[in-house]
Amino acid sequence: MNKLAVFASGAGSNYDAIIEATKNGTLEAEIALLVCDKPNAKVVEKAKQNGTPAFVFDPKQYRNKQMFEAKIVEVLQTEKIDWIILAGYMRLIGDTLLRPFEGKIINIHPSLLPAFPGLDAIGQAFDAAVKVSGVTVHYVDSGMDTGKIIAQQAVDVEDGMTREELQKAIQQVEHQLYPATIQKLITRGE
Ligand code: GRF
Fold it and tell me: Which of 97, 142, 162, 166 has its CA 20 to 30 A from that of 126?
């Protein structure tokens, strides 16, 4: 069984969706680890409730990014993690972590990349008044949301939709698309 580490820093709704998919059997993998850089994040509590082992750290306790990424790599290797699933981990991945897991790190982004990379993609799309936005799952490289695209799904921005409604529609798509895409990747054995 493939072992996944979910990296998250926030509410953890994608973590929930991935856990649910492992429970109902649509995702044949084990969520073996949560990695979180915000000790007070909601997702930490969720991991506790689910019995997911967690590596929670405060970046300020480390001299630099290289140091905390080296520690993360150590934990990932001890746990024999196969795939890193970024789900709202709000940091660029540095070389220290990228090199040993090249091609095995994926991210979900709430826009149709390459449109609206970076922070607040939903707000960016809303302000641009686009008629279609969506969700992208992509491999992670050293850039900001620049890695090779694996899957995308469009979301229509209906007339009169509020920003909150758009966010809800995008999150609903994320919660289906992410577990389904992970399942496809691991069964292809890439
Ligand atoms: C998601 O919208 C994801 O696309 C982005 O960060 C958000 C995380 O939300 N990368 P959650 O913590 O999974 O609810």
Answer: 142
DSSP letter for 136, please.
Answer: E
Tokens linked to 158: 């209906």
How far is ligand 1, taken at its centre, from the CA of residue 99, in Å? 24
- Structural tokens at position 116: 């609206």
Amino acid residing at 173: V
Ligand 1 neighbours by CB, cut-off 6 Å: 8, 10-14, 87-88, 108-110, 174
* Encoded amino acid at 120, one letter: D
**Alpha carbons 55 and 58: distance in angstroms, whole number:** 10
The encoded tokens of residue 49 equal 């409730």
| Cα–Cα nearest to 108, from 72, 69, 147, 80 | 147
Write out pLDDT tens, residues 45-102. Answer: 999 999 999 999 999 999 999 999 999 999 999 999 999 999 999 999 999 999 999 9
